[in-house]
Write a structure and sequence with these properties.
Layout (H helix, E strand, L loop, with lengths): L2 E9 L4 H13 L4 E6 L3 E3 L9 E10 L3 H14 L16 E7 L4 E3 L2 E3 L8 H10 L12 H7 L6 E3 L3
Antiparallel strand pairs: 1-4, 1-5, 2-4, 3-4, 3-8, 6-7
């Protein structure tokens, strides 16, 4: 039975838009996976140690695999595209970042996988494109819609539509 998932995509190194396009193309080519919808691209002020602005988007996919299997495939795409992870350093610059935001109505709380994504309610750069795709989708733990989370969010970092 197919599963529905939402994946957040971000990049702030190199050609950010081309990095998105490549990641989306690679996800589309995953076995038993298809992209249902894609948000607009948004440019967002960086969090943490990153210095340059990010381009972010969200895609909605249908996949036959489990959430852990999808995570493994997404991490392989990141690695193939040149993502370097630095232990102990979060929120730095990256060529590509692929996060499972939601996976059906599942709640997963493992060391390397948290679904819904644990920062979803605190990040306008995720909520803006996710709200574009699924404004009435209900967060399985917070019992509120994505659009309500966007309005109520406390993140004041600037996010706007990306004009390439």
């Amino acid at each position: 039975m197919p599963h529905r998932a939402y994946i957040g995509i971000g990049s702030n190194l190199g050609d950010r838009r081309a990095n998105h396009d490549e990641a989306i193309d690679r996800i589309q080519k995953l076995p038993n996976t298809r992209i249902l919808k894609q948000s607009s691209f948004y440019e967002s002020e960086p969090h943490g140690n990153a210095k340059t602005w990010f381009v972010n988007s969200v895609i909605e996919i249908e996949t036959e695999g489990t959430a852990p299997e999808l995570l493994k495939k997404l991490k392989a795409i990141e690695a193939t595209m040149g993502r370097k992870r630095v232990r102990g350093k979060r929120w730095g610059s990256r060529i590509i970042d692929l996060d499972i935001l939601l996976f059906d109505n599942e709640v997963v709380d493992k060391r390397n996988l948290k679904i819904p994504h644990h920062e979803i309610a605190n990040r306008r750069f995720v909520l803006a494109p996710l709200s574009e795709l699924a404004p009435q989708l209900i967060h399985p733990q917070l019992n509120t819609t994505i659009s309500e989370m966007l309005v109520a969010g406390k993140d004041r970092k600037r996010v706007h539509l990306f004009r390439s």
